[in-house]
Amino acid sequence: MKYVGSSARAGLPLWGTPNKGRLIGYLGGRATLWEKVAWNFEDLSMRLRGRWSNELGAHAGFRARELEALLGSAFGRVEAVSRLYYCAKYECCAPLLGRLTETTAFSFVFPSVYFVARRGEVSGPRRAETLR
Predict the structure, then answer these.
(1) Ranked by mean pLDDT, which of 93-97, 102-106, 109-113 comes out on top?
(2) pTM of structure
(3) What whole-number distance in Å separates Cα of residue 73 and Cα of residue 16?
(4) CB neighbours of 8 closer than 8 A, spacing ≥ 6?
(5) Helices (H), 51-124
(6) Degrees to nearest 5, angle at CA 59 with 44 and 29
(7) DSSP string of 82-101, one letter each residue
(8) Contact by Cβ (8 Å): 117, 18
(9) In DSSP terms, which residues pair with 17 in a beta bridge?
């Protein structure tokens, strides 16, 4: 799990991890194309060998529900913001991304999941989007 900066919304901390359900990853970073291809093949290899977990050395990350539960137990109040994050980051594609987030494809298309978490009474998590 990685703290990835402040949310523009009230300066709240933004937490993100790789999306364990993703089909491909490493699209945005500063790595070379070759590195990105190699890393995706390594991920595929880990999946095929049944080693697709953080505990077994994979860069698997968490599914949205898993990260939501971890943050909820530590902070109490959790809000899913992956949809908002990707629509803001790729503003030119926001209408398409907005429609995509309403489908189950969202849970394996996007490489990372993001949440805003804040201290509060531990209760049921607020589900601002569907990324399961």
Answers:
(1) 109-113
(2) 0.78
(3) 16
(4) 88
(5) 64-75, 82-89, 94-100, 106-109
(6) 95
(7) HHHHHHHHTGGGHHHHHHHT
(8) no
(9) 113
